[in-house]
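Propose amino acids for all 332 sites.
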């Protein structure tokens, strides 16, 4: 007996009991509506033909990694049906599977469940379809390949997105919801343009190394939730607020925490030809320094003004905060 038959029989028994008890007809009307609605329920309720879900850990382009709903059951797709892309239905990566995205493809209607993982090593394009086009409740890790979010497409992150390579290009929308995290483990690169909820977390933990220093782009003009800087293996100069032509402004709605800078120095302001003369950081929570060396206004490129508008508290339990340049560093 399937779930519909069990539920339907149960409702029929309730109705017979109700009539025998003399309950008035008007109270039974909602029950009969439910019976009619349940008539459309089957064991595959919630699925649609051509939906895919992960069956095991493996490569995205391997048939055995997937199951496909054929209208009656989840079965391994045939070679003709192939592995999922944006022409198929919903694509779900289940826990505890780790699916490696190892071949260039366009996808849509993807959900990474909590405990599920997608490791990207090839180019992924997120197309615009119905609803949210890429929903992250688990963990996507990008170690290679580029990610492109097409116009009107939407990627929502509720879990943890880790990036250690490639570029991220979006003409659609990228949203980091409350309690989500973006881990920037790439040496250099650009912080993605996104909508950052107040309790989202941007964690910069890359192993910045090599001569000449490293510039992190992408913070200008954005409003973040919490930002934490902690590259334990840093051994060179890193410029956080830059580049910009003349002025730079960023807002951190939550807390800005510097845990450490390795053996290198974190500069708030980039030097050289792209050196902004005005840098403004609006911090809605606390500004905390736990360790490392921070140069709030470095000497390269002449004098400038670096302003920290701090709504919360300034906490320093370790490290060094200095300003080697000729400009000023007002903290309001």
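Proposal:
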């Amino acid at each position: 007996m399937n779930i519909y038959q069990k539920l339907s029989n149960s409702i029929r028994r309730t109705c017979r009991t109700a009539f025998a008890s003399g309950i008035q007809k008007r109270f039974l009307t909602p029950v009969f509506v439910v019976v009619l609605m349940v008539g459309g329920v089957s064991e595959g309720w919630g699925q649609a033909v051509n939906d895919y879900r992960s069956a095991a850990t493996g490569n995205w382009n391997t048939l055995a990694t997937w199951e496909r709903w054929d209208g009656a059951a989840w079965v391994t797709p045939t070679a003709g049906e192939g592995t999922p892309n944006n022409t198929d239905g919903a694509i779900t990566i289940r826990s505890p599977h780790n699916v490696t995205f190892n071949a260039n493809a366009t996808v849509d209607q993807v959900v990474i469940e909590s405990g599920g993982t997608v490791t990207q090593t090839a180019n992924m394009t997120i197309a615009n379809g119905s609803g949210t086009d890429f929903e992250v409740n688990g963990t996507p890790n990008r170690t290679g390949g580029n990610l492109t979010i097409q116009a009107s497409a939407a990627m929502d992150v509720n879990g943890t997105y880790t990036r250690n390579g490639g570029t991220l290009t979006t003409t659609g929308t990228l949203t980091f919801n409350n309690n989500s995290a973006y881990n920037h483990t790439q040496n250099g690169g650009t912080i993605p343009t996104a909508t950052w909820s107040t309790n989202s977390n941007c964690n910069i933990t890359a192993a910045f190394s090599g001569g000449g220093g490293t510039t992190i782009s992408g913070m200008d003009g954005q409003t973040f939730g919490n930002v934490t800087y902690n590259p334990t293996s840093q051994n060179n100069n890193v410029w956080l607020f830059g580049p910009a032509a003349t002025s730079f402004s960023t807002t951190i709605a939550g807390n800005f925490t510097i845990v450490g800078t390795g053996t290198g120095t974190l500069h708030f302001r980039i030097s050289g030809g792209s050196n902004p003369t005005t840098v403004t950081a609006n911090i809605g929570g606390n500004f905390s320094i736990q360790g490392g060396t921070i140069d709030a206004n470095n000497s390269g490129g002449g004098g400038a003004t670096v302003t920290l508008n701090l709504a919360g508290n300034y906490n320093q339990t370790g490290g060094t905060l200095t300003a080697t340049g000729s400009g000023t560093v007002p903290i309001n």
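Residues 1-44 have pLDDT under 50 and may be disordered. The chain has three domains: 1-43, 46-176, 180-332.
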